[in-house]
Design a protein that fits this description.
N-term/lysine_N-AcTrnsfr, about 160 residues, Acyl_CoA_acyltransferase, N-acetyltransferase domain-containing protein, GNAT_dom, alpha+beta, Aminopeptidase
């Protein structure tokens, strides 16, 4: 059974930090390299970094499968869209419809906020994720390069899903 619940305690943020450390190292080191992942995990996925993001309007959610934490989501309400900042699932739990359930949950959040679309960014070399997002109705609207400091950039595509 898939359960998605709002992260709102330090223990939740610690679980997210642990999940991020596992998922990001496994998935992204082959795409962008270890030094960039080390930097990004410290900048974006520590308990302290998550607390800062929440203070600026981000919301985090833990994804559990049969009561086991297996992934997480981060979203932020914007003026015209719900920004899907993060959606990650442990590789050993992929293929169990968790990603699809998470996207349906995110769509419901967008509707609650009365937003007509969801936007996200995805690394241009993350071909499997791009294909998965396209299968879920997201359209690639073009490249987006973001300087994240320390000599690193995020070389992404921006993708949008319109909600009807």
């Amino acid at each position: 059974m898939i359960e998605i619940s709002k992260a709102h305690k330090t223990i939740d943020y610690q679980q997210i930090e642990t999940l991020a450390n596992t998922i990001w190292r496994e998935h992204y080191i082959p795409i962008v390299g270890k030094s960039q992942i080390d930097y990004m995990l410290e900048k974006y996925q520590t308990v302290a970094a998550i607390n800062k993001q929440i203070a600026t309007g981000f919301e985090y959610f833990l994804i559990r499968y049969d009561a086991i934490p297996v992934g997480y989501i981060s979203i932020k309400q914007e003026e015209n869209a719900l920004f899907l900042s993060k959606i990650y699932v442990l590789s050993t739990y992929r293929g169990k419809k968790i990603g699809k359930a998470a996207i349906l949950f995110i769509e419901e959040q967008a509707k609650i906020y009365r937003l007509k679309n969801i936007r996200l960014t995805v690394n241009i070399n993350n071909t499997n994720s791009i294909k998965a997002y396209e299968k879920l109705g997201f359209k690639n609207v073009g490249p987006l390069v973001t300087d994240i400091g320390n000599g690193f950039v995020m070389d992404d595509y921006q993708m949008v899903k319109e909600l009807f």
